[in-house]
Amino acid sequence: MQPVPLLLPIMQQNKPAVADEINRNIVNISELSTQTSEASNHTMEASQDLARLAEGLNQQVSQFKT
User: How far apart are CA 11 and CA 27, in angstroms?
Assistant: First the structure.
């Protein structure tokens, strides 16, 4: 293991690369969050459509019940 004073220049050189990697990860997380939100909205709309269809079918089937 290298002494701390020798590691400091190496750490300073890696700072921009680490910051860039963190930034890319944050951007990726943000994009995935947006995609997840959009997918959730689509799922909610589809569920509402299915609920309306189910209600319509229940009304039609109730006409045949004796």
Answer: 24
Dihedral of the CA atoms 30, 32, 36, 39 (nearest 10)? 120
If you count them, how many residues does the chain have?
66
Tokens of 43: 């799922």
Token couple for 9? 């220049």
| pLDDT tens for each residue of 37-57 | 999 999 999 999 999 999 999
Residue 2 has φ and ψ, to the nearest 5°, of -85, 150
Global pTM?
A: 0.63
Q: Hunting for tokens 């004073």 — which residue is that?
A: 5
Q: Determine the residue type at 59.
A: Q
Distance CA(26)–CA(56), nearest Å, equals: 45
